[in-house]
């Protein structure tokens, strides 16, 4: 009798597993179908603006003098640029930073204040690429200490982005 009951119990478990498996397989509410479509769009254009980056840096034992010298140097450069290029350039100048400069004294084994360094970043934007050489020469002549580099860009990328998006949509449809 025990063997017969054991066989019925085993058959019941087998049937329950089979029904559970079929129930999971036929329940489609958990299944989701998806499809991803990608497209590629590319638009090329020549840059229409150059961004020139310079830094005016001065050093002095006195903080006020270092800041004043830096301000004069930057102002001279900005005035020269505006006088030369006028409306063909846009000038942005950052605020002046002032940092103490230290030297290490071996005898006392301490850092000693040696003065101050003042610096100011100046950025010039122009659509006239033939002005770049003149503006760089003016920077050096005005006492600008660092030519940080030039970048070229598209002034307004929105129309180009729209064209690239349209090309990508067409590519995705194909």
Secondary structure elements and pairings:
Blueprint lengths: L1 H25 L22 E12 L2 H23 L3 E5 L3 E9 L4 E17 L5 H10 L4 E8 L4 H16 L1
Antiparallel strand pairs: 1-4, 1-5, 2-4, 3-4
Question: What structural keywords apply?
Answer:
single chain, alpha+beta, 5-stranded antiparallel β-sheet, 5 strands, disordered N terminus
Helical content, roughly? 40-55%
Distance between the termini: 71 Å
Query: Which word captures the global form?
Result: flat
Helix count? 4
Roughly what fraction of the amino acids lie in strands?
A: 25-35%
Give start-end ranges of low-pLDDT stretches: 1-20
User: Biggest β-sheet: count, sense, barrel?
Assistant: 5 strands, antiparallel
Q: Classify the secondary structure makeup into a structural class.
A: alpha+beta
Helix and strand sequence: HEHEEEHEH
Radius of gyration: 36 Å
Give the averaged pLDDT, no decimals. Answer: 84
Number of strands: 5
Structure overview:
There is one protein chain. The protein is of the alpha+beta class. The chain has four helices and five strands, in the order αβαβββαβα. It has helices at 2-26, 63-85, 132-141, 158-173; strands at 49-60, 89-93, 97-105, 110-126, 146-153. Strands 1, 2, 3, 4 and 5 form a five-stranded antiparallel beta sheet that branches. A hairpin with a 4-residue loop joins strand 3 and strand 4 (110-126). The longest helix has 25 residues, at 2-26. The radius of gyration is 36 Å and the shape is flat. It starts with a helix and ends with a helix. Mean pLDDT is 84; it is low at 1-20.
């Amino acid at each position: 009798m025990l063997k017969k009951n054991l066989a019925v119990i085993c058959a019941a478990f087998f049937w329950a597993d089979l029904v559970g498996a079929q129930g999971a397989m036929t329940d489609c509410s958990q299944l989701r179908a998806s499809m991803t479509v990608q497209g590629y769009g590319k638009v090329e254009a020549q840059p229409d603006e150059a961004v020139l980056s310079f830094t005016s840096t001065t050093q002095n034992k006195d903080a006020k003098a270092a800041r004043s010298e830096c301000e004069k140097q930057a102002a001279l450069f900005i005035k020269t640029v505006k006088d030369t290029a006028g409306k063909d350039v846009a000038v942005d100048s950052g605020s002046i930073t002032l940092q103490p400069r230290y030297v290490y004294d071996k005898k006392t084994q301490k850092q000693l204040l040696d003065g101050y360094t003042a610096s100011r970043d100046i950025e010039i934007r122009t659509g006239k690429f033939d002005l770049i050489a003149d503006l760089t020469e003016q920077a050096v002549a005005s006492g600008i200490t660092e030519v940080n580099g030039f970048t070229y860009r598209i002034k307004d990328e929105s129309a180009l982005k729209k064209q690239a998006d349209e090309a990508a949509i067409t590519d995705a449809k194909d």
